[in-house]
Design goal:
- The protein has helices at residues 5-35, 51-67, 83-95, 114-121, 173-176, 187-207, 211-219, 226-231, 242-249, 277-285, 288-307, 313-331, 336-354, 360-376, 388-414, 421-424, and strands at 40-45, 72-76, 100-104, 110-112, 124-127, 132-134, 223-225, 237-238, 253-256, 259-262, 270-273, 428-435, 438-443, 446-451, 461-468, 471-477.
- By secondary structure, it is α/β, with parallel strands linked by helices.
- It is elongated, with a radius of gyration of 40 Å.
- The chain has a six-stranded parallel sheet with strand order 8-5-3-2-1-11, sandwiched between helices. Strands 12-13-14-16-15 form a five-stranded mixed beta barrel. Strands 4-6-7 form a three-stranded mixed sheet.
């Protein structure tokens, strides 16, 4: 062995060991973030189901799919909402590659009407204690009989009654089905109720939930508490909070797009996704009360611009507000009879301002506006009615503007005419020339040909009696009356 060989060997071993330590540290550092599980995404919905909330939930589910989240939890508290928005959300849930749990929370919350359909569509249906769901009867917009609920079968059911959904143990399926409730009052309501019943029954069959109670929620507008819903197999879990929910559904198998998926959610990280500025702006614009206010501002702005053109600000603001109002109206369930009444009311108010009728047009406009505001959005649709104080407040504001505008127009009518042909009658002038071409006078600084039954001479003061084409008929006036007129 050569001198110094053991030292070089030890040095090489140290270098190899140090390289291994650095390599392991780097591997651990690189693999740590990559191996971290994606968090469970939580979406908060505490409003009526509409275009804004639908966009928020659909975008949230798409973000969860892009980020590889194990679960989406929609924390729901809603009185209901629009059928079109609800169906968009349900289609997104059914097509989502990520399991979706709808959790009715906090305590005291509800999933009424559209919320019940969404709960049935979710992969996991959960409720907090002291929450409710149900009352899923559809409500029509703008049709005769809209909002009328089909009469429920309220008769007392004895144990074993085939109409009782809890009865029928040991009987065949035909005998266990509940007897249908009495028919709705009109054909349109009947179509909507039957369509809604089939829709929620299909969701219940796909998720293995209580289809009989779902039909009762549609046909009879019944509701359940959280404990009753769990007992009736309408929901899967009753949980105190989101960590409790994630712990209870850990290991549960759900079917996602035709494939079985096992949830692994115990102690999972949670990330709440809030609406962005676009969704918040859409939520504000699509509010029925705000849409009505925008429409009023828009119409009044254009009215003032047309009545006194040249300023520009009222017309610009009015056009912007009116376009935003029209955008909001195409998102909302509008009764066009109500919209026509509002436009008629505004036209009558504008007519009162432009040509006062001593209150006749103004009062008619206010009555038409109030009636249109009451009919514009159906108050039976949860979250989409316009408050009565707002309607009457806008009507009172319109009345004040009409009174002010009408008084200004009446005063303007009482003032003397200051320009035009009519103003020349009664005006004073001075004869400035007389000859073969006729007699000429200066009136208001202008040279006019005049005729008179009186003898006229240059410097003679005259007063205009009438106008015949470009000739004035005048009479002679005393010289003192025209003092200061000049030639």
């Amino acid at each position: 062995m050569l001198p110094g060989t053991p030292g070089r060997a030890v040095h090489r071993l140290c270098r190899v060991a140090w390289a291994l330590v650095i390599g392991m540290a780097m591997l651990l550092g690189w693999s740590g973030p990559a191996s971290a599980a994606a968090p469970v995404l939580v979406l908060e919905v505490r409003d009526a189901i509409g275009p804004a909330s639908a966009s928020y939930m659909i975008r949230g589910m798409a973000k969860a799919a892009e980020g590889g989240a194990p679960l989406v939890v929609i924390r729901l508290d809603t009185p209901g909402g629009l059928d079109t928005s609800m169906r968009d959300i349900i289609q997104a849930i059914l097509a989502s590659p990520v399991p979706v749990a709808i959790y009715v929370s906090p305590e005291g919350a509800r999933a009424a009407s559209a919320g019940t359909y969404m709960l049935y569509a979710a992969h996991v249906a959960a409720m907090a204690p002291a929450t409710t769901l149900g009352a899923a009867t559809p409500v029509a917009i703008g049709f005769p009989g809209a909002g009328s609920k089909p009469p429920a079968d309220d008769r007392k059911r004895e144990p074993g009654d085939p109409a009782d959904p809890r009865a029928g143990a040991g009987k065949d399926k035909r005998d266990r089905e509940p007897s249908p409730p009495s028919a709705p009052a009109d054909a349109m309501t009947a179509k909507q109720v039957h369509d809604a019943s089939a829709f929620i029954r299909g969701l219940a069959q796909q998720r293995g939930r209580n289809a009989q109670w779902a039909e009762r929620a549609v046909r009879e507008a019944v509701s359940l508490t959280a404990d009753e819903a769990l007992r009736e197999k309408v929901v899967d879990v009753v949980a105190a909070d989101i960590p409790d929910l994630l712990a209870q559904i850990d290991g549960r198998r759900v079917r996602v797009r035709g494939a079985e998926v096992t949830l692994a959610t115990r102690d999972a990280a949670v990330a709440t996704v809030l609406p962005d500025w676009r969704q918040r702006l859409l939520s504000v614009i699509a509010n029925p009360s705000f849409a009505l206010i925008l429409m009023m501002i828009g119409i009044y702005g254009l009215m003032f611009e047309f009545s006194s053109p040249g300023f520009g600000v009222p017309g610009t603001i009015g056009a912007i507000c009116l376009l935003l109002a029209l955008f909001a109206l195409q998102l909302l369930p509008v009764n066009y009879a109500g919209l026509a009444l509002i436009l008629l009311g505004m036209a009558l108010l504008a007519g009162e301002v432009m040509s006062p009728s001593f209150g006749v047009l103004g009062m008619g406009g206010i009555v038409a506006f109030v009636a249109g505001g009451l009919l514009l959005f159906d108050r039976d649709v949860p979250g989409f009615g316009v408050p009565l104080p707002l309607i009457f407040g806008l009507a009172a504001t319109s009345a004040v503007l009409v009174l002010l505008g009408g008084n200004m127009a009446v005063r303007a009518r009482g003032r003397p005419v200051l320009s035009g042909r009519e103003e020349l009658v009664g005006a004073e002038g001075v004869v400035i020339a007389q000859g073969d071409a006729g007699t000429w006078a200066r009136v208001h600084g202008e040279r006019w040909k005049v005729t008179s039954s009186d003898a006229l001479a240059p410097g003679q003061a005259v007063r205009v009696l009438s106008i015949h084409g470009l000739t004035l008929e005048v009479r002679a006036e005393p010289a003192s009356d025209s003092e200061g007129e000049g030639t």
